[in-house]
User: Fold this.
Amino acid sequence: MRFRFLPALFAFELLLGPCHHTAFGQADPVIPRPVERRPIQGPGSVRPEVEAYRRLPNTGSFRDRIAARQAFVDQFPGAQLSLRVMQDMAQLFLLMEKPGESILLPEYARWLEARLGSPEYGWEWYRTSSDSVLLERIEVQLAYARILSFTKNGYDRALSALAEALVEGQSRPSLWSNRPDLKEQIDFARCWCFHGKGDYGVAAQAYQRFVEDYPTSDYIPAALRNAVVCLRNHSPELGAEIMARYITRLQEEYPRSAEAADRDIAKIAQSLGLQ
Assistant:
């Protein structure tokens, strides 16, 4: 069963393992070293991580670009720029045409899992940081969940990762008000994880809540389409009224969207007598 999401808000717009100081692809996971405290740079100086970030390659082989970013993260543990580099790496995978088919993805998932579970990137380290830094850590968690969702049997692990992100986001009232789009992305990610694992009843309810909570979201066409498909798979008779309403909304409000032209939607619409 196909289900839709937008890999790019991945840029979800999203949307997860470990080789310490080694090139990408080495098998044995090792916990990264403890955080190193660095002296404050003098006036007018440029922090070394900023210079290193500027030198990261944006061309060349995929493997080399990933390896350079892994080395950066291990060289500057706990730095805000390292969080950004983790997101960059996840984005490189997620923007592939078929990320789940990459032989490097499981290795990267293990590498990222080890880093996020280490003292310098764990939640405890960021709970005393500013809102902006904690939000970046939550964004990395979202990227981790998206990566996990493309690994074998990864949906449950992705849902656990998203649950952690929600708990941390709710720890400060200011976080979601500063970044409502991030909460929106996490909620949509939960929808498609339930959908992807085949839990159609829970997924349908999650999509319906999403449609109610985020009426102007860019994800609405996908949420409407996916809700209809989940209802058809879970309870076609009980969900007929909602399916008809969502299909009508798709066709009237988003007539040019890929979701409105979807073949599954056309078949369901025909079975409901809408065409």
Summary: The radius of gyration is 21 Å. The first helix runs from residue 48 to 54.
